[in-house]
Design goal:
five-stranded mixed β-sheet; alpha/beta; 370 residues; 17 helices
Length: 370
């Protein structure tokens, strides 16, 4: 079935069907179960095409989106979704802000920096908590990394193009008063671990799964969650507010289906990895670590305390206030940001099970090694 949807998507593109909020006409219903105007085959008579640029190339931390696509949840909402491989949250924010993509995934830092460049985008859901981390191995670092002060006198690998990790690291070092004592070594994308293991650096900045992968290979790895030390907004779902206003039901349907996708992925991790491999066959080579990464994301980053209390995607005003204040004080963004214009919960249908009562729909009782 998923292959047929991809074929239809390609056919629509070839015939020049408009692909944007408000242009194709969403006919999906208000719940998670499909359209009242669907044909006898339960296929909507018309659909809204949405291009969604990922924060990075397909990986297990995005499992909910691929499950929603492959299981037909987006289709049931009257949406024809094209998941586009990304090059980081900052790149995704730029593409959405320029109107090249309809929806994007990226951190609060990426969104705020894009708005600082006069790109009009807004967060419509908090998809998951921040996954940024500093990690190392005892074989290189000499001891387990348990506090930021240990980074003094060390070399740390960073990817300058990563708005999230570079910004958080610089804020942390400044906060700890060790900015002048840490050498930042700029490396290529996905070259942090290789530089660490070769001895070129003592630690690296990436995401939690970098440390998990090293543990899985037998190294004595340790990590610090950057969000434990600096205010952070994790992965968000953003779009141009004007475009969303033209077809609000398209965004509502996208968020409903995505929440449903994450619930399914959380309850069926093996099946979710099957969907990921279907979408990206090369992921079969790292299926075991991918499964661990997905389960860790589902348990610790998607099913957060905020989600348990308010539902999937809920964003907190105090969290956005803290992040904007911190970024302003550290000269990352200009002062005077109207925080209320940056985010909204208005398109989250909390009266539906998979959004408002998400926590009751999922089980994340995984026996994780870390």
């Amino acid at each position: 079935m998923s292959g047929e949807r991809m074929t239809r998507r390609e056919a629509l593109g070839a015939t020049g069907v408009a692909a944007a909020f408000g242009l194709a006409g969403c006919v999906g219903g208000t719940g998670g179960g499909g359209s009242a105007d669907a044909s006898a085959t339960n296929t909507p008579a018309a659909s809204t095409d949405l291009s969604v640029i990922l924060n990075w190339k397909p990986n297990a931390t995005q499992a909910g989106y691929f499950v929603a696509d492959r299981n037909g949840f987006y289709e049931e909402e009257g949406l024809n979704v094209d998941l586009v491989s990304g090059q980081g949250g900052a790149f995704a924010a730029k593409q959405v802000g320029l109107g090249n993509q309809d929806i994007g995934l990226g951190t609060g830092v990426a969104l705020l920096q894009a708005r600082n460049r006069d790109l009009d985008i807004r967060s419509f859901a908090g998809a998951q908590d921040s996954n940024a981390a500093i990690y190392t191995v005892e074989e290189q670092f000499g001891e387990a990394l348990t506090e930021p002060a240990q980074l003094a006198g060390k070399r740390v690998a960073v990817v300058a193009e990563s708005a999230k990790t570079m910004t958080y690291l610089q804020m942390l070092l400044k906060q700890e008063g060790i900015s002048e004592d840490v050498e930042l070594v700029n490396v290529g994308v996905e070259q942090q671990t290789s530089n660490l293991l070769s001895g070129n650096v003592d630690a690296a900045v990436g995401i939690f799964s970098d440390s998990l992968g090293l543990e899985d290979k037998g190294y004595d790895a340790s990590m610090l969650w950057l969000a434990n030390y600096t205010p952070a907004i994790g992965r968000t779902v953003f779009a141009q507010p004007g475009s969303v206003a033209e077809n609000p039901e398209a965004m509502r349907g996208f968020l409903r289906a995505t929440a449903r996708g994450w619930a399914w992925a959380s309850n069926n991790p093996e099946g979710a990895m099957d969907r990921m491999v279907e979408a990206r066959p090369s992921l079969s080579k790292s299926r075991e670590i991918g499964l661990l990464k997905m389960q860790y994301t589902a348990k610790h980053l998607v099913l957060s305390e905020t989600v348990r209390e308010h539902g999937w995607g809920h964003q907190r005003a105090d969290a956005w206030d803290r992040v904007v204040t911190s970024l302003t004080e550290n000269d990352v963004i200009d002062a005077g940001v109207a925080v209320d214009d940056v985010w909204t919960n208005d398109y989250l249908d909390t009266d539906t099970d998979y959004v408002g009562d998400y926590a009751a729909q999922v089980s994340t009782d995984y026996d994780l090694p870390v």
